[in-house]
């Protein structure tokens, strides 16, 4: 666990959904507390508190996800199709196949987390706050 | 691809005899002593059987419900009886059938599929199983005396706390809560098992797909159950000691329970579904003769579902008047979770496209699953839409939806899996003829029962009513549902007849009868107690399809660990990512400790339901002493044998410590799980803050003595030092210093605990009078309890290190005590900071 | 047990009797603007879901039947296009549309300049509904188990609970809203046509959850005003001797310790109790005991004598000890309170 982003660290697979979870938590808690405590009138940089938080959290998370996706892509694309390696006994080739799998899994997670984050943020544009 | 066809058509030769030492090491005790066996092939099978028993018990209650509702104004059951029956139906199906059988299936199958001889903590599986069996039967039996829980499987306060009468809710809280704790034991077992005990070469990209699903599932149990267990504790404290948490007249809020309950309750649905989807992903390829399409995509879907499902809990609270935007976040997340589901469904369909189906019974059930589950998934999207749910919520539409998802999504795959996998346990095949009959009865009976309920719900019939008036168009639909239920029940009768009779009359199964590619089918049938004959090297997802000769090579002992020269039960521990062999784990043999401890624990809990505290004390004491006895005998470290050749010229050690050891990982998983419970407590504190006008609310003022707090915190921080020194002393091989440091840490912990107790006593907060006060006490008592447990662990470990028992080691105990201690201290310091400073912030 | 058989028989009868006059209780039979949107939304979701289901099953069937043809398609395309892309697009559209429906059915918002909504407070308790009307001038009128509303006007219902969680559900008018102890929720409803609509508690609330119904009676605007004006009056003073005797028996039996009858607040047996429904105009209601029995002298007498057999676990004790003459007399008196 020395390096969270190391090629062989399984955490690279779940970082994207973790980011989604954090985004969800921030977005939900902000609105819940703002409504419960009557902070509807608070504004930050000209935006309502909830709008601002959702917007900021969404932008930050989407940018991070894009970065993670780029990293995963750079590890996935250059390696030949894993199907050729999958049955390898050679430890080096087996390692490549494994890391290609982990990169692809991470990449797909980023894609799905991206969509899910956008989904969760969308209602703030459409639905009354409290 | 010709390999696959070859593997599917050849039957491996019968295996030769086992090496004597291997056979004796894994020999099952005879007679009643069989019950002391802890091997997964025995415990797993008993576990699955018990799960099926509860399916029948829950199903009988379902039939009573349908009988009562067959016609309007029926008086088969009194209102009170009906309420107990539907409560116990839901409770039994969710807590005593669905979750346990999911865990049971993984306990049974996982080692076979991973190429391990057993999971790493067999006694813990056994203890969890016995707790479940005894606790479950005792909790269920409350229905025979009509003192069963009667406020729904969701036990909403204040109905469950103030209006439910004696015992009833306590059965739910203590009986079920205790089974939840047993479920956590299996979480630790299975997570560590998947991470650490795999066949050589079974790296993450070659992990059987079922294992991915199970890994996600048990981690979800690990995150989702603890907040509910915490909720159980809060509610039981409210009922038994009068501390208000959910009582609005004393500052609490009934919605707090709903949050805690559904934070578990929604993931629960996926906890049940995902392993079933894993079974489908495993069985389907066998019947089309081609590998699963999109392995990585399915892994993606399983993991993503695990995460997203934690963003759905308010989905059950759309009608509680929460802000519309808050609801919409959950609605959006509920829509999003449909995406990984769509991916899985089309991976299965694509797999079917890529091959040619063989219409055997398991495949029929899988097609039945796809048909039913897709429908349930689509109604799930409907109810995720907030405005539609305002109508559908708590109506029969939901009853229809949830049974489509749970029976369609979980029971059908389970039945497929039973037809498919029972030859592993019995060595015989179930009947194709009866199987097809049972399938059609169950499939048609199911749809006849539950399809009409969609309409009943939209015609305005609410759930959980013991009767209904005629004339609303509900009569005919209800009668149809009841008749359908009878057909469904008949299907299950046929199924269980087949299941039981096949043990005697079923034709003997040949090896790998379905032509499967996964490792569990490499063994002879019935699968021997040793598990895999020798541990093979794996190079793909379908080892047998990759190499049709694999079963033969395993038989000839060409894999690793082909014998047991020292007579131990052994399995190989491998690296988490690359599955490189690192150590030989010595597994415990038969022992009666889990059985007796399980019985004692269950008895203690059930006596506590009746508030017979004194009577509960002896069984509780017995359970604790047995657990300590057991803990003492862990960490077997044979003298004079440090390592051995496991085959292929590979020499592996018998013992390992620190982050490489399976015990360390078990503690990490436990701490993470516990952190989730603590998160629930923190959430409760903050939630009550949001619903209170001021903080502290209602003219309460706490007087916290700053000096006491500071001294307590200082001592706590200080206590970490000797704990860490104990670890390094142990590493340098100095047991006496280790023991002394641990004792010192306990003393510091005790002193800190005492100071904080004084702080609480002097704080002038009457816990029984206001939720704020009760929460402050809870916020500190919960971590204080952790520190107390840490002290028990430290003193126990110190004793073990000082005594230095022969053939046993204590390094795992030292490392785990250190982990637990540091986590408890962190928790307590955090609680202290929140309790003292949050009010000034707020 | 005698009670069970009585219960069964009476329920069956009551069910039959009620069916005639109950109006509707169905999501797909809307009687107001919110429910109309919701019914339309339900149909949209149903047909959309049905189409997707049929398509998915068709894809499955193709894979099962045309095995040689399907083997030529690279299977992962199925996953990418149908498993991923299609749900993303569909659900995106659904998210936007769902938000729109949520606004349309929220009658409490954005009706600037229109008539202010009528306010009604509903307090749920095991197992009946207390209903309090605000006349707009600070006055209130309390009744039970019946919500009389004017047609075409928005009605803001404030929902609270005195004991456990209940849920207010009139499917033909709107979705549910919970009544939660310690909180007040609101839901704004509107009926478009005069008539009787049935509603029912939708959150499990205890032994008699099944028998906790109520009626929404929608009147033309003028008729509603007249109705409300009549309800503001205290209870009718009995003149006929048997009704006077009934009133006396009613008070003597101690009914007033749980029930209010406005106009009977004086004297040793005043009817000022707050535990049960207000009986000031009980004779004019459609049903007894929250939709359990039809109204009338016979059912009133049966209810007083056997409340615990008819609806076990409700808060009203059975007055077995009263002789039938007294029961009839009380029932006739109560029936006269219109």
What does this structure look like?
The complex is a heterotrimer of chains A (130), B (842) and C (338). Chain A has four helices and two strands; from the N terminus they run H-E-E-H-H-H. Chain A has 130 residues and is mainly alpha-helical. In chain B, strand 3 and strand 4 form a beta hairpin. The longest helix of chain B is centred in the first third of the chain and has 36 residues. Chain C has three domains: 72 residues; 103 residues, Cupredoxins -  blue copper proteins (Immunoglobulin-like, Sandwich), CATH 2.60.40.420; 102 residues, Immunoglobulin-like (Sandwich). Classes of the chains: A mainly alpha (130), B mainly alpha (842), C alpha+beta (338). At the A-B interface, helix 1, helix 3 and helix 4 of A face helix 10 and helix 11 of B.
Which keywords apply here?
heterotrimer; B: 842 residues; mainly alpha; Cytochrome C Oxidase, Chain A; Four Helix Bundle (Hemerythrin (Met), subunit A); two-stranded antiparallel sheet; two-stranded antiparallel ribbon; 4 strands; C: Immunoglobulin-like; 3 domains; 12 strands; 18% strand; disordered N terminus
Brief rundown of the structure:
The complex is a heterotrimer of chains A (130), B (842) and C (338). With 130 residues, chain A is mainly α.
Order of helices and strands of chain C: HHHHEEEEEEEEEEHHEEHH
Unreliable stretches of chain C: 1-22
Oligomer class: heterotrimer
The structure class of chain A reads mainly alpha
**Strand order across the largest sheet of chain C:** 3-2-1-5-8
β-strand number of chain C: 12
Distance between the termini of chain C: 36 Å
Radius of gyration of chain A: 19 Å
Average predicted confidence as pLDDT of chain A: 88
For CATH, the homologous superfamily of the largest domain in chain C is named as Cupredoxins -  blue copper proteins
- Structural class of chain C, by secondary structure, is alpha+beta
So, CATH architecture of the largest domain in chain C?
Sandwich
Rg result of chain C: 26 Å
Query: How many domains would you count in the coordinates of chain C?
Result: 3
Q: For the record, give the distance between the C-alpha atoms at the N and C termini of chain A, rounded to a whole number.
A: 42 Å
Tell me the strand percentage band of chain C: 15-25%
Percentage of residues in helical conformation of chain A: 55-70%
How do the strands line up in the largest sheet of chain A?
Answer: 1-2
